[in-house]
Design brief:
The chain has 60 residues and is an all-alpha fold. The protein has one domain. The radius of gyration is 17 Å and the shape is elongated. 0% of the residues are buried.
Length: 60
């Protein structure tokens, strides 16, 4: 497999992915999973923002 040897993690999740990247069958699957994980994180963050906005509106 060909991974970027100089890749450095930015957070604990990135650290775990770098430690386990040899478990992925290919670089393409690794990239696909990474994009999926980031999409899920964005959805969770968006849901949190919506919940905060709802709380403000309902308090009014």
């Amino acid at each position: 497999m060909r991974f970027v040897p100089s890749a450095r993690p930015c957070d604990p999740i990135g650290q775990r992915l770098l430690e386990e990247r040899d478990a992925f069958a290919s670089v393409e699957i690794y990239g696909t999973f990474g994009r999926y994980a980031l999409g899920q994180l964005r959805r969770l963050e968006q849901g949190l923002r919506r919940a905060e906005h709802r709380a403000v509106v309902l308090d009014c």
